[in-house]
């Protein structure tokens, strides 16, 4: 097996140097063999022997990698760090540090650094407004009634003066929410996790309790409280539409989406909040404030107003005041960037007795393939990307998805609302994968990354564990328990088997949507 691994030495140019990746990916025989071997290999790549993989670094030298897929330098770096040991699904122990090195290697891989044409002006979601003259100040973008608790900020057009949330908004394009190597990400997530909460109000819409928090620099975050312990599994007698939303599912979904290379979920971090100081005392939402009470054991609880689980019996409680929650960066306000909500063609019936059309009609997908917007462009494969994410994390609650109106049909899908994922680890839900089984269509770049994640040196559970260890709540308890991480590998194997099965029944071109073909055009023949 020839691997596509290209490792960067610290003195090498950064991976964003377009030309060498381009050459590595599309030009050399070596890498093109790598790509096709990944794309066409049988599903069970996890069985392959990964020792003595040859990998060509950016300078064109051949490096021999160890069985862990690490360069000598990376191994040395990981050996110098203190070792914390975790148990994998096979009972073997593996240091978390090796997962961290795997994550670095994964994100440096050419499949995550594919060259793209420069983004055209109209393909950015927002543009900075030209400076307003003093006489026109009243027509500023927004004005708040009360500035109490907020910073007196004077932003100019230089992006360095922009707060991280604004830089995030300005980085949204037609193709993704944020770039792969995003220097702003660290500040953005740090601020979500630590900045003072100036106000907290209930978020209208949706069925379960959630709040919108504001920060001194006018940033906003969507807050979902902890409702279930990490090692608890959703009750088997509960229907998917009655399940709780989990804060750790929102966090883990963000990490998984990023690891899959999609970047279609707004950044989410975990945070422990003081329900009195950071919610009750700062809220101007009287309906919310009225629902606070002290439980018989002295914990401070609240339940808010919503159509599901907003009652004394389902209150969320601090211990005695500390409450774990997820905070997601808010997308630009709808007045600046309208979104369109699309009903999923594979939506469940949300009824205990009715079946949906896709569950009974054998030829359902061929109808969808002819129906706009699935009949043109990338919408069908975009939807398959979402289906794969949902199957991996076992989210049955994808009734709708959203897009930014500005970009029409030719844009990525927002993967919002992931709170009902990661409810059960001991059971997979094959019906979530029905669209892929029925349509047999997948993006080539997605398939390649999935195959990569099934290889031992990038194993999905290891890179997820490593990625989640960066979240502030990891110090309280790992965001996903080991059985949930193991389930990811098992489900990934099922996805790859499904695609393999498709390829046995249909021609390769029918199954694979080749979104990497443009790379060949970008390189002029030598
Ligand atoms: N990060 C975000 N920024 C802005 N808006 C968001 C964000 N996340 C979600 N929303 C919006 O808020 C709505 C409600 O959020 P969410 O879907 O997570 O809650 P819910 O209670 O599960 O809703 P539902 O019951 O409809 O599934 C979403 O449909 C979406 O339009
Ligand atoms: Mn929901």
Describe the structure.
One of its GO terms (biological process) is enamel mineralization. It is found in: Golgi apparatus. Mn(2+) binds at residues 245, 417. The active site is at 397. It is a single chain. This protein has 526 residues and is α+β, with helices and mostly antiparallel strands. It folds into three domains: 18-112, no CATH class; 163-329, no CATH class; 339-522, no CATH class. It contains 18 helices and 16 strands. Strands 5-6-7-12-8 form a five-stranded antiparallel beta sheet, sandwiched between helices. Strands 9-10-11 form a three-stranded antiparallel beta sheet, with no helix packed on it. A two-stranded antiparallel ribbon has the order 1-2. A hairpin with a 5-residue loop joins β9 and β10. α4 (96-108) packs across α15 (460-468), α5 (164-170) crosses α6 and α12 runs antiparallel to α16 (482-505). The longest helix has 24 residues, at 482-505. It is globular. Bound molecules: adenosine-5'-triphosphate and manganese (II) ion.
């Amino acid at each position: 097996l020839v691997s596509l691994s290209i490792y960067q030495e610290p003195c090498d140019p950064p991976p964003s140097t377009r030309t060498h990746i381009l050459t590595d990916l599309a030009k050399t025989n070596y890498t093109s063999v790598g790509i096709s071997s990944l794309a066409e290999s049988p599903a069970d790549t996890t069985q392959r022997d990964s020792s003595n993989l040859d990998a060509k670094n950016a300078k064109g030298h051949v490096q021999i990698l160890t069985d862990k897929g690490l360069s000598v330098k990376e191994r040395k770096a990981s050996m110098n760090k203190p070792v914390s040991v975790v148990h994998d699904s096979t009972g073997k122990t593996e240091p978390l540090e090796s997962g961290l090195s795997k994550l670095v290697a994964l994100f440096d891989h050419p499949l995550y650094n594919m060259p793209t044409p420069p983004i055209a002006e109209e393909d950015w979601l927002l543009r900075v407004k030209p400076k307003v003259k003093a006489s026109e100040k009243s027509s500023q973008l927004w004005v708040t009634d009360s500035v109490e608790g907020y910073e007196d900020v004077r932003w100019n057009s230089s992006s360095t003066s922009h707060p991280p949330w604004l830089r995030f908004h300005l980085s949204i394009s037609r193709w993704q929410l944020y770039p792969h190597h995003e220097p702003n990400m660290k500040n953005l997530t740090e601020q979500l996790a630590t900045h003072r909460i100036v106000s907290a109000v209930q978020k209208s819409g949706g069925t379960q309790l959630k709040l919108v928090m504001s920060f001194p620099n006018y940033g906003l975050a969507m807050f979902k409280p902890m409702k279930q312990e990490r090692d608890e599994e959703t009750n088997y007698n509960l229907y998917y539409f009655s399940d709780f939303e989990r804060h750790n599912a929102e966090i883990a979904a963000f990490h998984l989406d990023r690891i899959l290379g999609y970047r279609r979920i707004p950044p989410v971090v975990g945070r422990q909040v003081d329900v009195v100081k950071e919610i009750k005392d700062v809220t101007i939402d009287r309906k919310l404030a009225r629902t606070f009470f002290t439980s018989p054991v002295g914990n401070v609880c609240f339940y808010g107003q919503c159509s599901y689980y907003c009652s004394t019996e389902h209150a969320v409680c601090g211990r005695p005041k500390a409450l774990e929650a997820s905070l997601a960066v808010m997308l630009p306000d709808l007045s600046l960037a309208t979104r369109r909500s699309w009903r999923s063609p594979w939506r469940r019936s949300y009824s205990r007795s009715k079946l949906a059309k896709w569950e009974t009609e054998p030829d359902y997908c061929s109808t969808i393939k002819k129906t706009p917007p699935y009949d043109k462009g990338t919408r069908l494969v975009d939807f398959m990307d979402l289906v794969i994410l949902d199957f991996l994390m076992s989210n049955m609650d994808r009734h709708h998805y959203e897009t930014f109106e500005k970009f029409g049909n030719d844009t990525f899908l927002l993967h919002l609302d992931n709170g009902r994922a990661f409810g059960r680890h001991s059971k997979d839900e094959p019906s979530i994968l029905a669209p892929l089984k029925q349509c047999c269509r997948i993006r080539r770049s997605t398939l390649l990354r999935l195959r990569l994640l099934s290889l031992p040196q990038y194993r999905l559970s290891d890179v997820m564990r490593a990625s989640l260890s960066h979240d502030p709540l990891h110090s309280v308890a790992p965001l996903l328990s080991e059985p949930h991480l193991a389930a990811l590998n098992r489900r990934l194997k099922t996805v790859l088997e499904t695609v393999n099965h498709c390829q046995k029944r249909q021609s390769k071109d029918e199954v694979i949507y080749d979104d990497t073909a443009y790379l060949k055009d970008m390189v002029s023949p030598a």
